[in-house]
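In the present case, backbone shapes were mapped to integers, as reproduced here:
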Amino acid sequence: MKADLVTRRFVRCPHGCAHEFRVEHLFERQTNTAGPWFCDECGRGWDWEVTPEGLEITESKTRLYFHKVLLELPPQKESVFFTLASSGQREPGDPDRLDGLRYLYDEHTCITNWLREVEEVKIGTNTDPHGLFRFVNVFEAES
């Protein structure tokens, strides 16, 4: 089997962080400016301009300020269901598949490991339940 080799252009945060900005699409657009884009590590914002010489990057006047938000999921009148985009090594029809998944999600896996896979949250027939969580507090985080 032959694989396609694809080269993509990235720019590391000009402040020296490891965060990489994917910039390939900037060279394919009609407009030649973008930003601000923010570094996930230092929070600095960067404005981008494609020029005949390459890419000009200037620091934006805006930045991100990192924080942690504490939310509470109060008891609900109805069960809250989460649909996940998941995968596994057991084939459909494998008699041990359901027991393996039940163990994985009921006992073995922490919710923070699968929360990023959520495609839908559902209460009854409501697939867009606003106000499910209650804001409790905010804590400053290191950038």
Q: What stands out?
A: The chain has a mean pLDDT of 88. Residues 112 and 118 are 11 Å apart (CA to CA).
